[in-house]
Structures
1.
Amino acid sequence: QDVPTLGRFGAVREIPFHAGLNLVSMPLSVDVASGRPAAASDLAAALAAAFVVRFQADPAGHLRPVPYLPGTASSDFTLEPAAGYLVSTPKALLLRLQGTAWGFDSVTRKLIRGLLPLSLPHGVPPGTTVRGLLSTLGLEFGVVSEAAPGSQRGRLRLFFADGRTGSGDLPLTTGTALL
C-alpha cells in the first residue's frame, strides 16, 4: 500500500493515523510543491480527511475550534509548530512527512487557562509517556488519541497525571499531540 507523502525534501517522519479521530502535531516544517508551507487543505488531501481542526484563542483568551472542511467555504490555515490538530480520517494509514526541523524560536507556546493543544515539535524523547509529560508540565489531565481496543478506530482518551480512575498511561510517539 502506498504511503501518502506531504512535503518535498529533508528529514522524514512518519505519523500513524487511526480511522476516525486523531489528535496530531507537525514534527517537521513542511513545504509543498508550490514552495509554500503546508496548510490544512494539504493535510486533508493527503489523508482524504473529513476535517482538520485547529484551536485558536479568541479576543477574550478562550480557545475556539477553527475547522477546515474540504469542499466548503471554510478558511484554510497554515500548519504550525507547537500546535495540535484534530483530524478525522476514513481509514487507518501512515503519513510520511518530509521537511526540516522547526526553528527553536518558533516552537514556544504561551500557555493559557483551559484546554490547549500541545505538541513536541522537536520529537518525543524515548520513554516519554502521557502521565510523565503531564507531571513534567504540572498539568492535572490531558487528552490524546489512540486506537480503540480491538479495532483500528481512533478515539480520544482522558489521562490523569496521578493515574486516578484507572486512566493508565500511554507512550507518546512523534506526531502525537496532547489536549
2.
Amino acid sequence: RFAPDQRILAAGSDRDRFAGFHREAANDFAQLSMAFRFSLAAVLKYREALELREFVALEKVQQEIARLEAQIHEAEQDRCAKEQRRGQELTRGMRSRHLQEALDQELAIERYRDVLTKKQEELALKRQELLKAYEESRRKRELLEKLRDRKLGEYTHEQAKAEQATIDDVFLSRRKPTQ
C-alpha cells in the first residue's frame, strides 16, 4: 500500500514537523499574541494620581496668591486715591475731625494690605513646599514610566525574536529535505 520511501509517522513532533506544524512555533505564536502587561501598572496609576493631586494643590495655591496680589493692588490703589483726595481737601480746607477720619481710613487700608502681604508670603512658602512635593511625585512617576518603557522595549524585542523564530521554523519545515 505505501511506497517504500513513504512512512507513517508516529504521533508527536515528527508528524507535526513533517506536516509543517511545530509545537514550539505554536507556543511562540501564543506568546506573540499575549499583550504587554506591566506588573507595576497599578503603582504607576497611583503615582499619576498623586502627581495630579499635588498639581491641583499647587494650582489652588497659585490662584490664591494671584487673588491676594489683586487684592493688594486694589488696596494700594484705594489708599492712594484716599491720600490724593485728602491732599485735595487739605488744600481747600478741612476740619480736623474729617482729617482724622481720612487718616484712620488710610491706616486701616495699610493694615489690611499688610495682612494680605503676610498671607501672600505664607502662601509663597506653602507654594514652595507644594512645588517640591509635585516635582518629587512627578520624578517618581517618570521613573516608573521609564521602567515601563524599558520593559515594553524588552517585551517588543522578545516578541520580535519569537516571531522571527516562528517564521524561521515555518520556513525550515516547508523546505524540502535534500539528500
3.
Amino acid sequence: ACIALFVSIYSVTLSDKLLPFILILLGIVFAIIFIVNNPFRFTKPENRFFEALFQTTKILNNILQNKMLFRKLVLNNLFLVILMGLRFYFSCKAIGINIDIFYCYIFTTASAFLRLVPMLQSDIGSRELAVGFLSQSLGLGFKQGVLATAVDRIFEMVWALIGMAVFRNLITRQPLTPT
C-alpha cells in the first residue's frame, strides 16, 4: 500500500485523474499504521465467522509483535510488488502497449487487493475487469487493460509452472547413498 501510495503521489503530478486512487491508498496506509500501533484485542467469540476473525487478528498481532518476522515479511512483499509491476510492464511491452511503469504498479496493487476479496470462482475475470476499468479511467482504454492483464496472467502461469518443475525436482530428488 505504501509503494502504491508513493507511486500515485508521483503520478498525480503527471495527471489529476489519479486523485481518488491516492485518497483510497492514503486511507489504507493510515489504517495499516493504526493497526500496527494499536493491536486488536477481542474476547473469544461464539460465531464461526467471528472465530475466524479472532484467529486472524491473533496471528496479525503475533506478526506485529515479532519485529524480525515483520521486517522479513515487509521485505518479501516489497520484492514481490516490484516483480509484479515489472512482470505487468513487460507483458504490456510484449503485446505492443505503451504504458507508463507507474500505471503498471497501480494496476498490480489493485489486482493484489482484488485477490483478497473472493468475488468470483478462482478469480476468473475479476482482475481483468478491474484493470480494464482502471485503464479506461486513466485514458488507456478498456480493451488494452483487459488484454494486458490476460497476457500477464499467462506470464504468471508460465512462471508458476517453471517454479513448480524446479521445486518438484528439488523435493523428490533421491539422496545420494555411498556404495
4.
Amino acid sequence: RVSRVLKVAIFSWGIFSLISVILFAGYLVYVVGPGNAESRNTASPRDVRFVMNGCKLREDQIKEVISSYQSGRSFFGGHLEMHAIRVSSLEQLEFTLDEYAIGWERCDQVKGVLAEAISLVSRIEIYGIPWFPELDEIRSEQFFVYPNSIYCSGTKPSAVRLTFAKPTEEIIYFLDYKEG
C-alpha cells in the first residue's frame, strides 16, 4: 500500500518536473529567440508604408526613414515601435474630423482620452530614444496627432498607436506602445 502511494507521488512529481522544464525552456527560447530582438534604424521606406496609409497620407510622400526603433516583445505583449519619417509635404493635411471623430488634431488642443494617450509618450523615455520628441514639445501648437488606435484599461490608455505630424519640418513620428 505504501509502495502504491509512493509510486503515484513519484510519478506526479515527474510529470510536474517535466512540464516545468518544458515551460522554462519555452520561455527561454521566447526571450532570447531571434524574432524577439531589439532593432534600431533598420526600417526602410517600404517598412513604414503602413504609417502613411494609417493616417490617410500617401506612401509616395515618403522621402526617407530618419530613425526607427523596435523593442522586443515582453512575455505579456508589451512593446515599443517608433519611426521618424521625412515626407515631401504636409501641406495637404486636412485638420478636420470625419464622421467617426477620427482625423488630425492639433496636440495643444486635445482633451480626454486622446490627451491621456499622448501622455504615454513620457513613459518611453526609459528606452533612451533621443530623436523622438519629448512630451512638452509634442503638446505644442507645432504638432498634430492622428489617433490610429487607443486601448484602455478602464478609462486609462494602456496601449496606443499614434501618428504625430510636425508640418514645419515635414516629419511624421509614429508611436506604437503597449505596457507590459
